[in-house]
């Protein structure tokens, strides 16, 4: 039975998802130039000596990427359109393959029968994008040779719907932007312009911090973000490690406000007692 191809992105997202995939190809080429790797390390906020893994690239661009990852998922065989696939050319570029080996490679990749681990990756149906785990280099190879599809073992990854997400811009710094999920969980957008382009195409609305309700002060959030070092690129796929719970920050602010009020009340009480003593007033 002929395998089905992954559906790909909805119309509103197609151009931006295809741009994401093309950008990764360009970045991998750039990593092999004199200053290219240094530039990519700056952009990715990481230190690397070669092209970045697809999941690292995806975490950089998409907040809450693994938020709804299931403990176990069902894998299935599918044909992956190259224009929506994120790979990595780590050990070499497509033009490094000897010409005599190209036809055999293409045939192997079409049916996922190459030597070594079978190609596998994750597909996000809501966005229509695939990123590779095994078989990362074949993405660029098949694109280079104008092959539209390759076969892989795929697992699906849910992504939060656009109505659950907000892009929130700072009221004091226009370049500082956050993603907020379910009006509670916050992540810093480390590539704010790129991520906003992607999420806006997905249907996520943008607002300003002072337009949110039932949230802590922006200054308090900024302090918490700095304390947690959330301006740094995440070192793992853990979403908890790069997420701030706004409810917890709000509770801390409320406790601090209560503590200050109690302290003011105590100070006022002792001032009144001292004044009465000085004036000779009983009680």
What are the salient characteristics of this protein?
283 residues, alpha/beta, five-stranded mixed beta sheet, 8 helices, 10 strands, 17% strand, elongated
Looking across the biggest beta sheet, what order are the strands in? 1-5-3-4-2
Distance N to C terminus: 95 Å
Radius of gyration: 26 Å
**Residue share in helix:** 25-40%
Q: What's the overall average pLDDT, rounded?
A: 89
Strand content: 15-25%
Which regions are unreliable across 5 or more consecutive residues at pLDDT < 50?
none
Task: Write down how many β-strands occur, each being a DSSP E stretch of 2 or more residues.
Answer: 10
- Give the H and E element order: HHHEEHEEHEEEEHEHEH
Quickly count the helices. 8
The backbone outline, from C-alpha atoms, is elongated
Biggest β-sheet strands, sense, barrel: 5 strands, mixed
Class based on secondary structure composition and strand pairing = alpha/beta
Describe the 3D structure:
This protein has 283 residues and is α/β, with parallel strands linked by helices. The protein has eight helices and ten strands. Strands 1-5-3-4-2 form a five-stranded mixed β-sheet. It has a five-stranded mixed β-sheet with strand order 9-6-7-8-10, sandwiched between helices. A hairpin with a 4-residue loop joins strand 3 and strand 4 (129-134). Helix 1 packs antiparallel against helix 6 (192-202). The longest helix has 34 residues, at 246-279. The model has no long low-confidence stretch (mean pLDDT 89).
């Amino acid at each position: 039975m002929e395998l089905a191809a992954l559906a790909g992105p909805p119309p509103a997202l197609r151009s931006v998802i295809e741009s994401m995939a093309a950008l990764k190809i360009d970045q991998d080429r750039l990593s092999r130039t004199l200053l290219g790797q240094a530039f990519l390390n700056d952009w990715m906020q990481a230190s690397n000596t070669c092209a970045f893994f697809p999941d690292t690239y995806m975490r950089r661009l998409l907040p809450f990427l693994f938020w709804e990852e299931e403990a176990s998922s069902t894998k299935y065989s599918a044909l992956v359109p190259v224009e929506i696939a994120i790979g990595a050319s780590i050990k070499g570029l497509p033009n490094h393959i000897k010409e005599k080996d190209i036809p055999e490679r293409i045939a192997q990749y079409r049916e996922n029968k190459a030597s070594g681990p079978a190609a596998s990756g994750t597909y996000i149906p809501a966005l229509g994008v695939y990123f590779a785990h095994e078989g990362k280099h074949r993405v660029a190879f098949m694109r280079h040779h104008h092959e539209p599809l390759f076969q892989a073992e795929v697992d699906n990854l849910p992504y939060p719907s656009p109505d659950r997400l907000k892009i929130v811009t700072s009221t004091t710094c226009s370049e500082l932007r956050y993603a907020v999920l379910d009006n509670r969980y916050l992540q810093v957008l480390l590539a704010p312009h790129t991520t906003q382009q992607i999420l806006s195409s997905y249907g996520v609305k943008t607002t300003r911090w002072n337009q949110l309700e039932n949230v802590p002060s922006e200054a308090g959030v900024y302090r918490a973000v700095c304390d947690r070092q959330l301006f740094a690129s995440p070192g793992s796929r853990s979403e908890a490690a790069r997420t701030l719970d706004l409810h917890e920050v709000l509770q801390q602010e409320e406790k601090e406000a209560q503590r200050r009020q109690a302290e003011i009340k105590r100070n006022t009480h002792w001032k009144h007692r001292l004044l009465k003593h000085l004036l000779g007033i009983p009680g």
